């Protein structure tokens, strides 16, 4: 099956000359959860805005389920639900009126049973007659999701869905998103929370300064870029790293009771076997050892900061 969203050579230069996106090529597969990860100002909201028809692209094209977002705007847009980064809602409307109106905007026939299900799934049913202004910040975010789902979209964009949301609500939202995906909806979310990408995404795209610097299956990404740390507990306390081991990039930790060795899992030689051999030759007795894998967070910081100095 062709991808549900296809982005080709997309660039955006805002009036005033700032280039927010630089030649983006990206395909989103059906029913996947794709996390777009990037620092402030990377271009995440701009990219979503273009796909949803809120921002004009400067160069390039986007199709949504085969519909060109410009030539065939209505068809493309009707497939999309957007949960915007900023909360923008008529404050004195009730929750029910707000989602009914959102559905109406897409000329969908009334379907109160469907809207009831959406509100129940988001634990908002009890609040259906409350005015939006009286809701807490987290509940307002849920209303935004309900509005975005009101016209039964096949694709849902969540732009920073859980920014400023407490841990419990965040987990609830993750569950809502998983359920939606299970029902066949494709989800694209942006986040600063690595934990969120790590927890939810099937694939992760990293965007930095308007460029997609990496797109990878999450598990593969962690395997490929992951560094590992080997911690060795030594039998007798060491005052210094033995001279025979100076070729290895070791550090002494645990008040002289631990040797720490960082290595790249993808390197042709990790050096682990040689290190263990040298240790035994030098008479260093190993009591125990364990390895830890770097998290997506460390991988991300590495990628975004890069090796060079920051401007
Ligand atoms: N309407 C606009 N006019 C000019 N520049 C803009 C406009 N909107 C965004 N930008 C600039 O484009 C860049 C990308 O902004 P964008 O909102 O897409 O980033 P983002 O990745 O969503 O950031 P955040 O994580 O802070 O939400 C920023 O430098 C921003 O200042
Ligand atoms: Mg943004």
The poorly predicted ranges are: none
Shape: elongated
Instruction: Work out the strand percent.
Output: 25-35%
- Ligand kinds: adenosine-5'-triphosphate, magnesium ion
Indicate the structural class.
alpha/beta
The CATH architecture assignment of the domain at 227-293 turns out to be: 2-Layer Sandwich
Mean pLDDT: 89
The count of DSSP E runs of length 2 or more, i.e. the number of strands, is: 14
* Distance separating the two termini: 42 Å
Rounded to an integer in angstroms, the radius of gyration calculated over CA atoms is 25 Å
Outline the biggest β-sheet: 6 strands, mixed
Describe the structure.
By secondary structure, the protein is of the alpha/beta class. Helix 3 (95-105) runs parallel beside helix 5. Helices cover 32% and strands 28% of the residues. It has ten helices and 14 strands. The chain is elongated. It binds adenosine-5'-triphosphate and magnesium ion. Adenosine-5'-triphosphate is lined by residues 14, 16, 18, 20, 38, 40-46, 85.
What keyword list fits this structure?
Alpha-Beta Plaits; 14 strands; elongated; single chain; 4-stranded antiparallel β-sheet; alpha/beta; binds magnesium ion; binds adenosine-5'-triphosphate; 6-stranded mixed β-sheet; 10 helices; 311 residues
């Amino acid at each position: 099956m062709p991808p549900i969203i296809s982005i080709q050579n997309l660039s955006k230069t805002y009036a005033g000359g700032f280039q927010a996106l630089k030649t983006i090529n990206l395909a989103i597969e059906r029913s996947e959860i794709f996390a777009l990860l990037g620092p402030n100002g990377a271009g995440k909201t701009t990219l979503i805005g273009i796909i949803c028809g809120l921002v004009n692209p400067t160069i390039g094209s986007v199709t949504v389920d085969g519909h060109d977002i410009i030539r065939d705007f209505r068809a493309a847009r009707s497939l999309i639900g957007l949960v915007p980064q900023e909360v923008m809602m008529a404050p004195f409307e009730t929750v029910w009126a707000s989602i009914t109106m959102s559905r109406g905007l897409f000329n969908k026939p009334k379907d109160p049973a469907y809207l009831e299900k959406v509100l129940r799934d988001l634990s908002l049913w009890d609040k259906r007659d409350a005015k939006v202004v009286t809701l807490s910040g987290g509940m307002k975010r849920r209303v935004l999701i309900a509005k975005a789902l009101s016209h039964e979209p096949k694709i849902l964009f969540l732009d920073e869905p859980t920014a400023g949301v407490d841990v419990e609500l965040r987990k609830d939202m993750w569950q809502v998103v998983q359920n939606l995906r299970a029902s066949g909806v494709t989800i694209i979310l942006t986040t600063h929370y690595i934990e969120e990408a790590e927890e939810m995404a099937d694939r992760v795209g990293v965007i930095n300064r308007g460029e997609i610097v990496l797109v990878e299956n999450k598990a593969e990404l962690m395997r490929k870029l992951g560094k590992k740390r080997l911690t060795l507990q030594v039998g007798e306390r060491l005052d210094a790293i033995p001279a025979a081991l100076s070729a290895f990039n070791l550090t002494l930790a645990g008040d002289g009771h631990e040797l720490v060795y960082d290595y790249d899992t993808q390197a042709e030689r990790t050096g682990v076997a040689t290190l263990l051999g040298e240790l035994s030759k030098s008479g260093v007795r190993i009591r125990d050892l364990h390895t830890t894998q770097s998290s997506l967070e460390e991988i991300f910081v590495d990628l975004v900061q890069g090796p060079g100095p920051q401007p």
